[in-house]
Write a structure and sequence with these properties.
Blueprint: E1 16-17, E2 20-21, H1 37-55, H2 59-66, H3 70-81, H4 123-130, H5 132-143, H6 158-171, H7 189-201, H8 204-212, H9 214-219, E3 236-243, E4 248-253, E5 259-264, E6 268-274, E7 280-286, H10 293-304, E8 340-342, H11 345-351, H12 355-362, E9 365-367, H13 383-394, H14 416-423, H15 427-442, H16 454-463, H17 474-478, E10 483-488, E11 490-492, E12 497-503, E13 506-509, H18 511-514, E14 523-528, E15 536-541, E16 546-552, H19 563-574, H20 586-595, H21 606-618, H22 621-644
Helix pairs in contact: 1-2, 1-3, 5-6, 6-7, 19-21
Length: about 675
């Protein structure tokens, strides 16, 4: 390069080079501490020479202090410091680092490949420089992605790109002339592959599309979350649903005695986690095929209510000290409200029905993909709840032999269905284990909050909060799951029947409504205020005048049940699957119908599991314990009878997979758990 525009006079300022004003204060600097030995010494010599040159020092002074000439300092500035870095800024002091390539190698000599494969450095660049149209078409092919609804090839490998380029070069006659890359053993595959990587690296959007498709491209648009930080306790909670990775069974009693196990395929857990303290506020164990609005509301209700440790059957000391949900810290933590509820797109469709409940009771905003930063099916918008589910699976159910794993390959030849049936690992045990795992999580040190437990950190944040936190009225929490409907009062003197209302497949009335013939033909409010006992409901006129507690007529007046169970039974009756006799208990008839189905013929009906859960919760604890003891005695008698008869059985023997604090005895099985009998 000619240096005619460089003035060697010591009286002239050299802050203008090549008609460009230079301000070294804007130059980026490398990590000088990472340089060692001769590289470090040469870098500082170059830096001193450039500084002296720009300050107007003479050539002799620069030569004496740095051993570099003035012209060499000028070339360092012109050819290295002022070149543009890939980040868009000048190289600055970074260009003075020895052995750093500023420009790509450009070949000027004719390509001649030796017998050992050498002598072709820069051949691809020289070839593409000579064919600019080919370069443009090749880069367009590399950067092309799926757009719109056209049927295109989305995943093109390097080998296919290389094959396309070789076909283009054949059309140009390179193969006939035995030119590069056809005079090499690998046909230039390594060089072409590096060029493809370099083109993709210069275009992050195309690289993301080639690596992960549109989902990864959309993730590039999102920030790191610094613009929406969580700065205070109970500001934001994350809520999501997780399907348990395991197979469990339910024991159905037989008419002639004994039990029969059937597989339960889907069990869900809905968890609400506070972001700042990482504490789990509440959860709900769902036995439906898919998560419903009722499950979400029950999870909210548990997060706002009081938590009690449940009795567990697999260990005497299952809970850690101070384990539990947030409410175990004291009455001040019961009913604490939050400001924002973050959900993913799949759960947001269900949460449309609970938006009003969140706004009216908790006064919280629902953050969903339509109104926030979140995106459907993305795990990056709720990292804390996703990490919790990953730990819940890895440290809990995936450690058991009845697990299905996160993907089909995780089974590794195991048969979790056979394990669940042979060990009688029922869903009630899964619910106990889930409660213990979540409660112990809140009492376990967490590395993300300085190795403090979530409950201890929540207690610290609560007492150091700058403003008082909101609380919800317990009466409002109790009514959170209430279902309200306007029903027409029917009957009356004209029909010869006392006034009544029809509410979700059932007829309701009471003494007050019997005497209100003036309401016949008009509408009143009917409210189901007990989520697990729809035998009763509240009633009031449209003006708010209470009409007392309505009671359901047969067959819904005997056993407690929910509206979901009643709807499932009514639909089964309408399809002709079962018939409820007059005066009978609909819940008992339905449970007998499910229990009488052929083995492995139909999956267990979710309404049966729901009805069974309600009956267990409604039963007296002492009665439930007595039933459990009786079931254990029957199981022991059955095992002893089987051993006297030669141990014949139509089920394969499996080791016990129940969670115990002590090693389980090989071959032992969990006792059947039907703690609440209908009828």
């Amino acid at each position: 390069m000619q240096v005619r525009d460089a003035d060697d006079s010591c009286h002239c300022s050299r802050r203008t080079i090549g008609r460009r004003a230079i301000d070294t204060s804007l130059w980026a600097s490398p990590d000088e501490g990472a340089l060692e030995g001769e590289r470090r010494a040469l870098y500082f010599a170059r830096k001193q020479a450039v500084s002296l040159y720009l300050s107007g020092a003479t050539a002799d002074t620069i030569k004496r202090l740095t051993a570099l000439g003035a012209k060499q300092a000028y070339r360092l500035i012109r050819e290295r410091c002022l070149e543009t870095h890939p980040d868009g800024r000048p190289y600055g002091w970074r260009g003075l680092v020895p052995w750093t390539r500023i420009k790509h190698y450009r070949r000027h000599r004719k390509i001649h490949v030796s017998q050992f494969g050498g002598g072709a450095v820069g051949a691809l660049q020289a070839l593409l420089d000579a064919q600019p149209e080919l370069r443009q078409a090749f880069e367009a092919r590399i950067l092309a992605g799926a757009s719109g609804k056209r049927l295109v090839e989305t995943r093109q490998s390097k080998r296919r790109h290389c094959g396309w380029l070789l076909d283009q070069l054949r059309e140009l006659g390179c193969e006939q002339r035995n030119e590069w890359p056809f005079n090499t053993a690998t046909l230039g595959y390594v060089s072409i592959g590096r060029y493809i990587d370099r083109v993709l690296s210069a275009n992050p959007r195309a690289l993301a599309a080639a690596s992960g498709g549109p989902d990864l491209v959309s993730k590039l648009k999102t920030g790191d979350g610094t613009g929406r930080p969580v700065q205070k306790f109970m500001q934001r909670v994350e809520m999501d649903a997780h399907k348990l990775d395991g197979r469990f069974c339910v024991s159905l009693p037989l008419m002639g005695g004994g039990f029969r196990e059937k597989i339960v395929h889907r069990l869900w857990v809905i968890v609400i986690l506070e972001v700042m303290s990482r504490a789990v506020l509440g959860y709900y164990f769902s036995m439906r095929r898919e998560v419903s609005k009722d499950d979400v509301l029950r999870a909210l209700k548990r997060a706002l209510g009081k938590w009690w440790a449940r009795p567990v059957s697999f260990s005497d000391k299952a809970y850690l000290p101070d384990a539990g949900l947030l409410s175990v810290l004291g009455d001040n933590f019961v009913g604490l409200c939050w400001d924002e509820t973050s959900v993913d797109g799949a759960l947001a469709e269900t949460c449309q029905h609970v938006r009003d409940a969140l706004r009216d009771t908790v006064r919280a905003t629902l953050l969903e993909p339509k109104t926030s930063f979140s995106k459907r099916r993305s795990k990056d918008d709720r990292p804390f709840i996703e990490a919790f589910f990953r730990n819940l699976a890895g440290k809990g159910f995936q450690r058991l032999s009845n697990t299905t794993g996160a993907k089909p390959q995780d089974r590794k030849g195991r048969k979790p269905e056979d394990v669940a049936l042979a060990s009688r690992f029922q869903y009630e045990y899964a619910e106990e284990l889930l409660d213990v795992l979540i409660a112990n999580y809140n009492a376990t040190p967490h590395s993300g909050i300085g190795n403090r437990t979530p409950l201890a950190y929540a207690n610290f944040l609560y007492h150091h909060a700058q403003q008082s936190l909101r609380r919800v009225d317990p009466a409002v929490v109790e009514a959170l799951f209430s279902i309200r409907k306007r029903c027409i009062v029917r009957g009356g003197a004209a029909s010869g029947r006392a006034p009544y209302v029809e509410f979700y497949y059932g007829r309701y009335t009471n003494e007050v409504l019997h005497n209100r013939h003036d309401l016949v033909g008009s509408e009143i409010w009917v409210v189901c205020h007990k989520e697990d006992d729809c035998r009763v409901a509240l009633a009031s006129t449209l003006d708010g005048i209470p009409l007392g507690v309505l009671r359901a007529a047969p067959p819904w007046n005997i056993s407690p049940h929910s509206l979901a169970v009643r709807a499932a039974i009514s639909q089964a009756c309408s399809h002709g699957q079962l018939t409820i006799p007059a005066g009978a208990d609909a819940i008992e008839i339905f449970m007998r119908f499910v229990e009488s189905q052929a083995h492995k013929r139909l999956p267990v009906h979710p309404a049966y599991l729901e009805a069974r859960r309600i009956l267990v919760a409604a039963a007296d604890p002492s009665i439930g314990a007595a039933m459990l003891d009786a079931a254990m005695d029957r199981a022991k008698q059955k095992d002893s009878t089987g051993s006297r008869n030669g141990g014949t059985s139509n089920k394969p023997a499996r080791p016990n997979v129940a969670i115990k604090t002590e090693p389980a005895t090989p071959g032992s099985m969990l006792p059947p758990r039907r703690m609440a009998q209908s009828g």
